[in-house]
Amino acid sequence: MVEVTTQPRPPAPRAAGAGELFQLLRDGRPRTRAELAAITGQARSTVAARIDALLAAGLVAPAGEATSTGGRPPVTFAFHPGAKVVLGVDLGATHARLAVTDLSPTVLAAYDAPLAIADGPDAVLSWVAETGAKLLEEAGRGPADLASVGVGLPGPVEHASGHPNNPPIMPGWDDADVPGILGGRFGVPVLVDNDVNIMALGEHRSAWPDVDDLLFVKVATGIGAGIVTDRHLLRGAQGAAGDLGHVALPGAEHVQCRCGNVGCLEAVASAHAVATALGAQGLPASTGADVVALVRAGDLAAAQAVRQAGRDIGTVLAASVSLLNPSAIVIGGILAEAGEHLVAGIREVVYRRSLPLATQHLRIVTARTGAEAGVLGASVMAVDHVLSAAAIDAALEA
User: Fold this and answer.
1) What is the reported pTM?
2) Are residues 223 and 354 in the same domain?
3) 234 and 188 in one domain?
4) Where does the pLDDT of residue 258 fall: very low under 50, low under 70, confident under 90, or very high at 90 and above?
């Protein structure tokens, strides 16, 4: 019997339309036409034509000359992040943060202000449009420079449509056409997601770019998670992935949650729940900020309450660690500002309840980007849409 040895096939050349070719340049590293032709397997004339199209669009710029191996040194080309700008919008229950960024995305102009989401979509989105236009001017850019808008909302969002879906703290926003309203004001694509997902994007891209799998947990008025797996945000079928706060917590079956169920993690361990419990003990606490202030002032009862909230969150996160096996769990939101008490409680339970294989390299830390995570993530979402291969090809054809 003759043994037949099958030789492995050589890797197929990467497809290299102008949009796909551009993806090779997004890392900012200058490359020559010859290098790009070698990577893609395309003819140098084809690569040259596509580089010319990207140069004309301003997305790529000459970046000097490469070292010569004889003859005239070849010209290198690199991504030009200043070609366009995007507007990132992070809307919370009582605040708003906006930023105009380039395509890196580097912040060019930003603005924070108190804002009541309960005022409804007409008032809030009109304010966003007016403030965004002022920020463009402050950044020295005009309306024609704006390529896209990214928006984060403090409630469930159907990502495909960008419409809020029965958001509990956003009266009047259910099924509001946020992309249509803002798109009509700015004349560009508008991407919308829930606030925790955009915080996960911002934290991952800014602080953990080398981590493939990350879980971002926001502990504030509610509790939610943004899931980054294989460097991509996992949204689920309707955009509802990561709704950690409404997972049932063992032993809390008697506690009513605002969602209508009982025993939800959010009803026991959110900043609102901790503040309510401390207030019932006679302490001056009605908000998460009040809880943080008490902990920082050395109040033992507040510190113990936050530590217990961490343990409760850790109980639910332990199951998530077994299911998703992240490399890092990043804790953000107002309650994460109460020192190490919250994270210590989470670590205590997760490391005890999860398998050693899943936790041997697991880091559980507080967020590095702080309050800027949301607006940075909104910009990342807008930039990724604008710079996708399909979007670039469509723009060049137009």
Assistant:
1) 0.88
2) yes
3) no
4) confident
State pLDDT tens for residues 223-238. Answer: 999 999 999 999 998 8
Q: Are residues 239 and 165 in the same domain?
A: no
Based on the fold, state whether residues 233 and 314 are members of the same structural domain: yes
Q: In this structure, are 261 and 157 located in the same domain?
A: no
Total number of residues shown for the chain = 398
Whether 341 and 306 have beta carbons less than 8 Å apart is answered as yes
Domain range spanning residue 159?
Answer: 84-199+374-397
pLDDT at 67: 65
Q: Are residues 159 and 269 in the same domain?
A: no
Going from the C-alpha of 123 to that of each of 32, 120, 128, 161, 194, the distances in angstroms are 50, 6, 9, 21, 19
In this structure, are residues 181 and 130 in contact, taking their beta carbons and an 8 Å threshold?
no
Q: CATH no. for residue 120?
A: 3.30.420.40
- For residues 283-307, one letter each, b for 16 or more C-beta atoms within 10 angstroms of the residue's C-beta and e for the rest, the string is bebebbebbbbbbeeebeebbebbb
Q: What is the pLDDT of residues 146-199, one digit of tens each?
A: 999 999 999 899 988 999 998 888 999 999 999 999 999 999 999 999 999 999
For residue 241, the 8-state DSSP code is T
Per-residue DSSP letter, 248: B
pLDDT band of 11, cuts 50, 70, 90 = very low
The answer to whether residue 127 is domain-embedded is yes
Look at residue 13 and tell me if it is in a domain: no
Q: For the chain, how far is it from start to end, CA to CA, in angstroms?
A: 61
Edge-first strand listing for the sheet containing 328-332: 232-234, 223-229, 214-219, 328-332, 363-366
Position 4 pLDDT exceeds 70: no
Does residue 333 surpass a pLDDT of 70?
yes
**8 inside domain:** no
Among candidate residues 245, 247, 244, 248, the one with its CA nearest the CA of residue 234: 244
**Are 182 and 94 members of one domain?**
yes
User: pLDDT averaged over the chain?
Assistant: 91
Cα Rg of the chain, angstroms:
24
Q: Which two tokens stand for residue 144?
A: 């024609």
In a domain, 348, yes or no: yes
Question: Beta-strand (E) ranges in the chain?
Answer: 31-32, 60-65, 75-79, 85-91, 95-101, 107-114, 146-153, 157-158, 163-164, 190-194, 214-219, 223-229, 232-234, 328-332, 363-366
CATH, residue 36 = 1.10.10.10
| Rounded CA separation 308/286 (Å) | 18
What is the C-alpha separation between 395 and 398, in angstroms, rounded? 5
Same domain, 352 and 212: yes
Count of structural domains, the chain: 3
